[in-house]
Design brief:
Chains A, B, C, D: Catalyzes the formation of 2-amino-5-formylamino-6-ribofuranosylamino-4(3H)-pyrimidinone ribonucleotide monophosphate and inorganic phosphate from GTP. Also has an independent pyrophosphate phosphohydrolase activity. Chains A, B, C, D: InterPro entries: GTP_CycHdrlase_3, Nucleotide_cyclase, Rev_trsase/Diguanyl_cyclase. The structure is a homotetramer. By secondary structure, chain A is of the alpha+beta class. In chain A, about 45% of the residues lie in helices and about 20% in strands. In chain A, the strands form two sheets. A five-stranded mixed sheet of chain A has the order 2-3-1-4-5. A five-stranded mixed sheet of chain A has the order 7-8-6-9-10. At the A-B interface, α2, α4, α5, α6 and β7 of A face α2, α4, α5, α6 and β7 of B.
């Protein structure tokens, strides 16, 4: 049974800020958002966690191994270096989706994402170190089989992007609604999903669903660990096996 | 008639690099990708252009106003500061989609995105300054009506994300396949599209299509200009009018 | 005769901000300052200019080739992405020192660097494009002869640093007070100086002064150009000649 | 008695890289160096340490609280994201200067800073956690009394810089040669020094030496702690007391 700790990171009152006193230059907003995400990725990554850019103003992170002071230090650092501040809600759950529901509720109870007075909230509790196990996190790393040969080198760049995007949209909804997993596009043709404890037949069914719905063929490496990094590296190695051996599902899985 | 100059920016041989000699730490890759994009956004933005993160290893930019040496300087700067290099293909077309087909072809003719020997290619020609007009670019800036009130403050963060993502997946495919426009998710609930010359009834039809297909209700501000920045700022102001007046389509449009 | 355009960039009210409401974490300040400088270096560099970190809250730049709107765009971009804002004063002069006096006066007339109400000032005028020449800028790129062999690989890192720092302190004062040049430590054992029109005997005298005063032996490459970048690249090539041939002063100089 | 852990961070073979195959654009080098330092400052700061930019290609850090795997993770992260790699030597000592001698020796024994084959060295051992105390680090935070009123708002920017630079050059040499302390300019008119256990009369003598030698008048806040951050925050608060009360030396000191 997985035991995922999820943190929702929300830029405080961001929408209104982007148009006050007048709409701000789009390329500055893009730079601001992507650098803020890059910093969070490094800071959370230093503790073995994973951050996903998601909507950029709402960033979802897997933070097993981080306590509340670790969160506070990151929040302070962003507040010292950016023109915006962030709030953080932490949740726990047997599935990643349940953990995120709790994390979201923490923030929503304190006010709207566009509430001028809700700033730098940090709420929720983290996993007790004594209860942590090597199977708290399951990461599934998907990619598109031969994406470069079939798409990138053949189609124009947007047509390739459409294929990948339709595959992702199908996968992220299906994995969430059917299994309580959270799937994130991470660039190229890669999707990293934080999953509950799923096994080979379930991953095969998921791949089949995406193929029949969006006509995109995926392979997946799966790993478990006490942190997102440990699980994620195992998943990456699983995916390398898929690439070498032409299999569809590899990793530390029961059959 | 629009006259869009599109540049496809591709990280050279990126997929293989990320797993050589072994899979690299995911949070480092995320930081690398998002900072590389942030730099391109600033550098292209300094010339009035727009860069979209797209797949991060394949970044699409609207570069009206930039010549080939401007591209070369950015390419050199990335090569000097990152462990990876970029290739660039430039294309022109009456629709943004056509321009991107040309830009993509330039790169594909030089070799695969995963070809070790294809490095720092820069091909294609740019608009003649004497032929540029104030209507070369049309930008449509979409967002979801009351996304904060209806989704962000009500649903958990992933359920909100699913809604926005399904809306985007529908919009980007429809706009491309029916009109030759290129739509990019830019964070929050915002999508910026580079369009051919479309008018109010067409935008109304597009919004209706997304609503009936993905159950997400959009509004849109539209602007024209000689650069992406000029058109984009006009589009942002149009969107502000939508927000204030409760209308669906605003901006510099024929009726 | 050189014709240097110098811009003084000052972070507005920075000292008080760093301790409000309480002293901020030093490593965040260091990150903020060095990234802000890095952005300015890129943005000014895109126009062929040079920015020097100087005191970090007072950054001096050589901006031949940039007009006032170019400055305004950079000022806006920093204001959109940092928790602090910058003011800019532009000056012209036959010597770099005179140009900086004018640039500084522009800002001082508007209020103190620690005035809460002096924000985002941008004053001064730039070179008329028709008056620009290929000899407007002279750059001298100094380094310490065999610094790695004599210092870095022999002494402990701070003792090496002391040598380099004493050499720099001597050079920067002498060049300013005797010639009206502005010398900046740029890392390693390198100093880049923006000079008036000096010739070989004067560079020889400068090197001798530093040797006799601080016991550090320098070599120098010199270049001229219409921008800092053009002059600076010529200077770098001159320095490569010094390294190869064991000479002390090389570049585009009268004898 | 202090017990400082110092890490010397050296960019591998940096000098040759900057001119291979030809001199690289200076503004790219400046951006690369200052961003690399900014990242180290964040990464080391996350563990309570301090990094000082020093020569940029040789960065000195106080790393009490970090073990060897913490260092390795940072080294890997830089290697994954920059076109250059870093080596690290760690040293311990009763004075900071002694610790740095040890740290430097670790690297020098492995080869030159310009040795093509010496890459990503990580050597030395860190403090045993059981031996750490709340007085392992002493930080002295100096600034120039009324620098804004006397210099920044009165003199031109370079003349102000000369004063601050001469004061720093005097202080850094004196503190090193007489006491074994390491002083670093950190921007504005601020110098942060890592010291052995000094007391009020010694700080008064240091200030007097700088005043009589370089004609710059300093004040100083002093703090102790088990990490650079803890000691440094106490020092900052001491400096605030100096500013409010017009005293010269404040902090957690014996008389």
């Amino acid at each position: 049974m997985t035991n995922t700790q999820v943190t929702l990171i929300q830029i405080d009152n961001y929408g209104p800020w982007t148009v006050t006193p007048a709409p701000r230059r789009e390329t500055d907003l893009q730079t601001l958002q992507s650098r803020l995400f890059a910093d969070l990725s490094q800071q959370i990554g230093a503790h073995g966690g994973y951050a996903f850019f998601t909507r950029f103003d709402n960033i979802i992170a897997v933070t097993n191994g981080m306590d509340v002071p670790d969160h506070a230090r990151i929040q302070e650092s962003i507040g010292n270096r950016y023109p915006v501040t962030i709030s953080m809600g932490i949740g726990l759950g047997e599935t990643p989706a349940e953990a995120l529901v709790e994390a979201t509720t923490r923030l929503q109870e304190q006010g709207s994402a566009q509430d001028q007075d809700r700033r730098e909230v940090l709420l929720g509790s983290t996993l007790n170190p004594t209860e942590r196990t090597d199977e708290d996190i399951q990461i599934a790393h998907f990619d598109v089989i031969d994406a470069t040969g079939k798409y990138t080198d053949q189609l124009d760049a947007f047509s390739t992007f459409i294929h990948i995007e339709q595959g992702y949209a199908t996968l992220m909804r299906h994995l969430h609604d059917e299994y309580g997993g959270l799937a994130f596009f991470v660039g190229g043709d890669n999707v990293i999903a934080v999953c509950p404890e799923l096994e080979t037949p379930e991953y095969e069914a998921i791949i089949e669903h995406v193929e029949s719905t969006a006509n995109v063929t995926l392979q997946v490496g799966v790993g478990a660990g006490s942190t997102a990094h440990d699980a994620g590296m195992a998943a990456k190695h699983g995916l390398e096996v898929c690439r070498e051996e032409g299999t569809r599902v590899e990793g530390s899985l029961a059959d």
